[in-house]
Design a protein that fits this description.
Two copies of one chain form a homodimer. Chain A contains 14 helices and 27 strands. The first copy, chain A, has 491 residues and is α+β, with helices and mostly antiparallel strands. Chain A has three domains: 12-69 and 125-285, Bira Bifunctional Protein, Domain 2 (BirA Bifunctional Protein, domain 2, 2-Layer Sandwich); 302-398, Anticodon-binding domain (Rossmann fold), CATH 3.40.50; 418-488, C-terminal domain of ProRS (Translation Initiation Factor IF3, 2-Layer Sandwich), CATH 3.30.110.30. Chain A is globular, with a radius of gyration of 26 Å.
């Protein structure tokens, strides 16, 4: 690629930004912290949405839509919730502009001030539980299994495309249950859906676990998460599923009559993933030649590039190439034939390599004669010649092989970057020299966790589900510990 | 249905609201003018989205996403645009809350005031054309064919669920072209897509036409529209497609080098439909028994209700009903088997009739013996007995017949409600006594149009495409007119 493109070694952060911009995924907008998701980047998000939406529906959920505005007073009803979100929210105070009496342009019309300010949703628990109050009278009205695809706004100070932006797109599931057990089961079920999606679509292995109190969602009793490892050894939280207990039901007075005829508060969960996942896919698989996409999420799975020297060859090759395209499309593959004569094959090879298209098929006059094509794999950069016979099936198998290979590579990488630390020195050494996940003993207090974060920037990513109990001493305080937890520096 | 449900005759407006609420489509939220779209209502919108999205992609468009915030200064760059939208927009002025020092709850943190206020998009031309400036250098970068699915906010004073809400969901296409001709062609193409969708999915006949200057989109050179007729004789604008000329390219300095090497401003279009279409579908087809949905948009196309007297019959009937369900689902139909034993068949009949499910299949013990089922059509309320053999095909044909029948009924209704008026008296008489579309002569001036609106509340819905020229006298001013235009009272 062009020389102004960074490698991971040189500057990981610039490498990431270069890929996002040069692969046409997204760009910064005129509004601080907000990005424009360009068609190619948005197409990846659409693939994610469509797979997740089907998984949500297969597990009994329906979509709905709630207002983007939350009355300020709703926000204060759950004490932890407002603590967690009040510091970073966009506030609507007026509902009209007027011509500037002193000059050009428009100014806010002071006579159009809202009685109560409205907050742009940073998450929708409050407005949704205010609504659920009217939906629930009896146990027969439960469970409510609802999901929403929406935009949310959190006024983050340091932003980065896809990974952390002031506005982002996400889905938020909000469910209501008659019993604690059922709500906890739902929390786990959706965590499993997320892990399944991360591993089988994004080709990223994830650790499932529960957050420590410090890292818990504001208003939750327990936050479950999936944690992925990026190529620079930093962790990335890829999805969360919260058991909210009866906190929001109490705050918004949502009660139901149980089978036994008692009036009880409803149990709640919420769970979400966002456009951050696009950032995770980019970071997990791409290389110094540009973007690498898992076939299941690639907007274009196969690109066909005709090779020719003259007009006659061009027509002959394109005719065959188009046959191949149609055969593969009929098989359900996402194929593009780039038959533009304004760009040379070499330029196209670079372009689609950089954009992470999993397979490239080149076809020239000799291929037409010999009934062959040349296929290049994006993941390994290997090229091989294939007979055209039964090509759609061969291509399908190659795509599956790439999907598997990307997952296996990411898994091997994570295994190689998973460490055990038993002393503070060891812990710091691993953090600074190797990165990755570190299993270490912790005394279980929020204070220790906070101090470790302040001194090393590492946080507890999670306490893995089914973690084995093992006595030891906290790497920081030396106090007794009943289990190792997973530390890492994180996005 | 229950006695508290209005008929169209009694109170058309209440009838509409009753359907929206009692069929579980939507409800008002705690935020003024914003609705909650409930799962059943949202499922109709999802069917619309999926059909339209495919039509947009089949015509070469891609989806993308632009920020919800528009810097205030962008708004003023196109003079007509700001005039049209400044009066009804939500303004973000602050980005943080803090604990109220004088008491409970939170207040806006005055130290977190934005330097420049942000407007919640009422439509995205300005932020998008600010972005396009960097996407376009040469004619080779054109056309840009982009669509966005998003929420927008217009601070309307009088709102009505689906038809006019402060926040609504929509799609907005924004395209950029090298020539005027190409942009105009795109405007027409997307109008045709909308008309196709309205007639073939929503089963609503529409008139295609161009708006008068008064009714034009703020910033457009021409606004094309599709106009539908509701059962109370009022018109409803169901979609618009705007030819924006070079207005936004000039305002945001978007130029390109043409094939001839000249620097020129880019030509623009924009086009959109919204959740208002859900309101149109409800109003166009429903009757005094509740909602009526066209099969192509119905979340549930067929409901199966088992009839039984005892546990043994229940099991026998449900087994057969489930076989039927599976056979129909395998055919791609959207089927629900309601085998709850907590509700009686009569209750279920009412429920699904009210919710507009196109076909209801009842199956009892005698049906199981005789290999029959009873099928009731929601549109005609007719019931017939069918042999179970080949049932999925029969059901598919019935659904097609319902789709066609709803369109034909709506077309007949519109034909019966289309009038010609040659005098002011005639015009007023038709408006007050019959409603519907009125073809009448108009002198072509904005003043006359405005006066007609003030005196009668009727507006020019459109000048039909391919309108035949015909000399006459303006019904209001008596001045010369070259053609009839279409008037109606409208939503």
């Amino acid at each position: 690629m062009a020389k102004d493109f960074s490698t991971r070694e040189e500057n990981y952060s610039k490498w990431y930004n270069d890929i996002v911009q040069r692969a046409d995924l997204a760009e910064n907008s005129a509004v601080r912290g907000c990005m424009v998701i360009k068609p190619y980047g948005y197409a990846i998000w659409e693939r994610m949405q469509s797979a997740l939406d089907k998984m949500f529906k297969d597990t009994g959920h329906s979509n709905a839509y709630f207002p983007i505005f939350i009355p300020k007073s709703f926000f204060s009803k759950e004490a932890d919730h407002v603590e967690g979100f009040a510091k970073e929210c966009a506030v609507v105070t007026h509902y009209r502009l007027k011509n500037d009496p002193d000059g050009k342009g428009v100014v806010v019309d002071d006579t159009a001030k809202l009685e109560e300010e409205l907050i742009i949703r940073p998450t929708s628990e409050t407005i949704i539980w205010d609504t659920y109050r009217n939906w629930v009278q009896s146990y027969r009205d439960l469970p409510i299994l609802v999901n929403q695809w929406a935009n949310v706004v959190r006024w983050e100070m340091r932003t980065r495309m896809f990974l952390r932006t002031a506005e982002f797109l996400w889905q938020e599931g909000h469910t209501a249950h008659a019993t604690k057990e059922e709500a906890i089961e739902e929390t786990h079920k959706m965590l499993d859906v997320y892990a399944d999606f991360a591993e089988n679509y994004m080709a990223i292995p994830v650790l499932k676990g529960v957050k420590s109190e410090n890292e818990r969602f504001a208003g939750a009793l327990d936050t479950y998460c999936i944690e992925a490892l990026m190529q620079d050894g930093k962790a990335l939280q890829a999805g969360t599923s919260h058991f909210l207990g009866q906190n929001f039901a109490r705050a918004f007075d949502v009660k139901f009559t149980s089978k036994e005829g008692k009036l009880e508060y409803v149990w709640a969960t919420s769970w979400g993933v966002s456009t951050r996942l696009v950032g995770a896919v980019i970071m997990a698989h791409s290389d110094d030649n540009g973007l690498v996409l898992p076939p299941k999420l690639a907007p274009i799975q196969v690109v066909i590039v005709p090779i020719y020297k003259n007009e006659k060859q061009y027509r002959m090759v394109c005719e065959k190439a188009d046959e191949i395209r149609i055969a593969m499309q009929n098989k359900g593959l996402r194929v593009k034939l780039d038959d533009r004569d304004t760009h040379k094959p070499g330029w196209k090879f670079n372009e689609y390599e950089f954009k992470g298209v999993p397979l490239r098929i080149a076809i020239g006059p000799r291929d037409v004669e010999n009934d062959t094509v040349e296929i290049a794999r994006r993941d390994t950069l290997e090229k091989s010649v294939y007979q055209q016979q039964d090509l759609p099936n061969k291509v399908e198998h190659l795509l599956e092989a790439i999907q598997d290979n990307l997952f296996q590579k990411a898994l091997n990488f994570r295994d190689a970057k998973t460490f055990y630390a038993d002393t503070w020195e060891e812990f710091n050494e691993i953090l600074d020299e190797k990165g990755g996940f570190i299993y270490a003993h912790w005394d279980g207090t929020a204070e220790t966790e906070q101090k470790i974060k302040e001194e090393t920037k590492a946080t507890i990513r999670c306490i893995p589900l089914g973690n084995k109990k093992q006595e030891g001493k906290c790497i920081y305080s030396g106090k007794a510990s009943a289990q190792r937890v997973i530390f890492a520096r994180a996005y």
